[in-house]
Amino acid sequence: MPSVGQFDDCRLLDQWAYDLLTGDFPRAQNRRRIADLANGYPPYSDDEVTKNGIVVNINDLSMTRIQHDARAQFYNGIMKPGRFFTATLHSGIKHKRKEWGAIVTAEIARAMKRNIGYFESLRSKFGLLTLHGIAPAVWETRDKWCPRAIGVEDALIPSGTLLGFENLPFFMLRRSFTGMELARYAFGDNRRNPGWNKPMVERCMEWLDDQMVQLYNSNWPDIWSPEKWAERYKQDGAFYSSDQCPTIECFDVYGYVDDGKDSGWVRRIILDSWSTPESQIAKGGLRKTVVQRKHESGGRYEGYPKIEYDNDFLFSSRDRRWARNWQQLVSFQFADLSCVAPFRYHSVRSLGFLLYSVCQLQNRLRCRFNESVFEALTLLMRVKTQEDIQRALEVQIGNKKFVDESVQFIPANERWAVPHQLVELGLKENTDLMQSNASSWVQNQNFSQDKTHKTKFQVMAEVNNASAMVGAALNQAYRYMEVEYEEVFRRFLMDRSTDPDVRRVRENVLRQGVPEKHLQPEQWEIAASRVVGAGNKTMEMAISEALMQYRNLFDPEPQRDILRLFTTNITDDPDLAQSLVPDQPQKVNQSTHDADLTFATLMQGIQVGMVTGENHIEIVEELLRQMAGQIQKFQKTGMAPPDKIQGFQMVAQYIAQHIRIIAQDPQEKPRVKKYQDALGKLMNLVKAFAQRLQKMMEARQKAAQQNGNGQMDPKDKAKIAATQAQSQAKIANMRESHAARTAQRQIQFEQQQKQDAEKHKADLDAKDLETASEIRRSRFNSMEEE
To answer: What is the DSSP track for 50-111?
Structure first.
């Protein structure tokens, strides 16, 4: 394991960096070939076209289509769920954990979905996964939550590193800093860090100034005040970030050290002196490089004299641990199709790697095939001499054409014919190979080509088989995404963060009542949100419909989750599903309230009449829900009291009356069938309670007869009599109470009617008096006018 001292030698790290670069160069060439094929480049090079006289050189985009289909699986599997992950709290008040977990999950998910940078980071990672099988991302600062996707070529990992990185001693990232970025990191007020080598940063800025002077032929002075450089870079930040402005190329080095007392990762940044060989300083008339390498023969490269400075780091965390584990530095996603274990980083085999050969072969075959088609469309003539060629030219006079008799047209039966059956077989075989290699990542069921009539079971079996293969790939992706989600979650809980999203989320979480003491990452568990059916729409809808069919048998809270899942799968819009089925149910309406009161009354053995104008659908659903909840409670013991069994029977009769009213609408047949099935299942459980109760009574009676007196135990008989008397008394009291309430309501109704009649009569009398007054007033006015 490397020590801290090894990471303090800039030239040693520089040598390690270029050892990794040269070792990765052959792999980079393979990645370039795969990328060119996927980007639509033709299969033949320019030299091959010229040398072989190739006429058709096209890319049929088979590789491109497969790559897009594979990326669509990741889009659907990772970005379709309403939330990227679910956070579960494992400490604190038990009945508050779920509520706090929902608050934290919702606030973080909202920030992640609104951030376009994270959306583009995921898109880049999905593209890298399907093309190269490796998708790295890096956190640029210690508190910024959103990772930035980087190319596979920019992540330098030592050979022999296992997936999982348990034997990773160090790694490097290639980075490019603009003048504006370098000034912000090194001299910014909010990002000041003692690890930056300020003299080295100033020399880099001086080199940038020299390059810009030469590039734009400016009259800037050659000497600037170092204390004003930071202000100048802030003022001209856009100018120094332009496309033509050079950048500072660096290696960002992370090494793991463990001195027995403290373990973690240290950080160093060194300049890439080969990519920026002009990073020099002027001192004593001699221009010296910032970093120097040795030639393989032991000498120095020409033009790179020895540096006189000991500290060549652009940044160094020294002995301070920059991170506790590599997950706090970078995020890796893998789509490995390799068959050789143990699986290694540089042995990852991607979908693009497996498809390259057959797609390249398919492209070349199509080029040759199209050339043959063009050749078959060419008009061929047979001549004997060169002079016949000239005579073969047609002579046109007006609208008439003449051809010399020495020219003979070659008929189709004498021309070479392309073996079209063999060509079609070759194209089909290549297509089958591509589909077979991509079956783990792409849904390639094409039912339109299968003319055989299949049963529903056969179709579902084929769909399930395809979903299982794609699901295996998504499960691998979910596991690696959870590693990234855990780090994102940790950064969202950081106190005193400079990231505005983190501060906003933390304020919202605390405002909603989540205790600050529970905003510790170690108290939470993160689980990636997974799409139903492994991304297959057919399986997704089949599972959703099955859950909806048995939804009434679940507890109330899972019922809302099932309804939201069903809505999401139908609309493919998680935001709309969240709006239609929110986490907290809306305020109870009048129908639901009346159904709850009716259920309680029926369970006490009191008949309830129906009122016209009710919402029968809401009443039936609420009564079924209440009935299922009560039955579930008694299922734990397997028994229900006689009065409860009688109450369930009365509730069932009341529900059946509403169902008959709903059934009068022909369009509600599916709903009626669903209600009848749910009610039938519940009544089967009630019948089971009644049968168990009857068996228990028979067993007690039989036991009493075996005692010799043929009578029931007096104590049990007394208990049963007391229970029956109590139940009868309760029923009588409820009936009397109900009758009293009914009589009271009738009296109130009659009094209200009487008051309304008296008021109406008074209004009529007043109106008559007013009318009479108007008549007298009119007569009086008429008399005055006369």
So the answer is: HHHT--------HHHHHHHHHHHHHIIIIISSSSSEEEEE-SS-HHHHHHHHHHHHHHHHHH
Give the burial string for 7-31 (b: 16+ CB within 10 Å, else e). bbebeebbebbeebbeebeeeeeeb
Buried-exposed string 470-492: b where 16+ CB fall within 10 A, e elsewhere: bbebbebbbebbbbbbbbbbbbb
Nearest Cα to Cα of residue 181 among 196, 171, 170? 196
pLDDT digit string, tens, across residues 212-233? 666 554 444 433 444 444 444 4
What type of residue is 250?
Answer: C
**Cis geometry, peptide bond prior to residue 642 (ω within 30 degrees of 0):** no
Instruction: Decide which of 211 and 299 is more confident.
Output: 211
Q: Taking 70 as the threshold, does the pLDDT of residue 56 lie above it?
A: yes
Which ranges of 288-419 does DSSP label H, i.e. alpha helix? 351-376, 386-392
Other residues' Cβ atoms within 10 Å of the Cβ of residue 658: 20
Q: What is the 3-state secondary structure (H, E, C) of 654-704?
A: HHHHHHHHHCCCHHHHHHHHHHHHHHHHHHHHHHHHHHHHHHHHHHHHHHH
Query: What 3-state DSSP class applies to 156?
Result: strand
Are residues 171 and 158 in contact, defined by beta-carbon separation less than 8 angstroms?
yes
Looking at residue 327, its pLDDT comes to: 93
Confidence band (pLDDT; 50, 70, 90) for 176?
confident
> How many angstroms separate the CA atoms of 70 and 127, rounded?
9
Domain boundaries, the chain: 536-586, 591-712
Average pLDDT of the residues in 117-141: 92
